[in-house]
Amino acid sequence: MSMELANIPWNLVIPIIIFQVILQVASLISLVRSDGVQRGNKIMWAMIIILLSMMGPVLYWTLGREVR
């Protein structure tokens, strides 16, 4: 069941990849600029944002980000 790259619907995949990268970059910028986080520390949240692709930034924005 190998899938050829030619069969991938790139017009659907590229926007998802771009959205993911923007979400990760925005989350990392927010993390660096913040004074602190609610749960854990900044290094832990940076690893979560980077390693968990789409879920990492969502978790950061909902659970980790310190509300001002």
TrEMBL record:
Taxonomy, superkingdom: Bacteria
Organism annotation: Desulfosporosinus fructosivorans
InterPro entries from the UniProt entry: CLS_N (IPR027379)
The keyword Phosphoprotein appears for this protein: no
Membrane topology: Multi-pass membrane protein
GO (cellular component) term, any one: plasma membrane
Name of the protein: Transcriptional regulator
Domain Cardiolipin synthase N-terminal: 22-65
Cellular localization per UniProt: Cell membrane
Transmembrane feature ranges: 12-31, 43-63
Keywords annotated in UniProt: Cell membrane, Membrane, Transmembrane, Transmembrane helix
